[in-house]
Design brief:
With 70 residues, the chain is mainly α. It contains 2 helices and no strands. The chain has one domain. Helix 1 runs antiparallel to helix 2. The radius of gyration is 17 Å and the shape is elongated. The two termini are 23 Å apart. The mean pLDDT is 91.
Length: 70
């Protein structure tokens, strides 16, 4: 896996831990939770785009096409 994917996965996991910690508080901060969840969703979107690009590139390479012809 490449470095960008590793960093995105690590950031997503860290946000999951922060969200779980906030939810487990006696009185969770709703604004902080919303912010954390938005950040997590943004990272998830970037992660999916990176994976889709990597899969498309591998698929094109398997077919013998260059990425610029797609």
């Amino acid at each position: 896996m490449n470095i960008m994917l590793d960093r995105l996965i690590a950031a997503h996991r860290a946000l999951n831990r922060e969200i779980a910690g906030e939810v487990s508080r006696r009185v969770p901060d709703a604004l902080r939770l919303a912010t954390l969840k938005k950040r997590r969703l943004a990272i998830k979107d970037r992660l999916h785009r990176q994976l889709a690009a990597k899969i498309a590139k591998a698929s094109n390479a398997a077919r013998g096409r260059s990425p610029s012809t797609t």
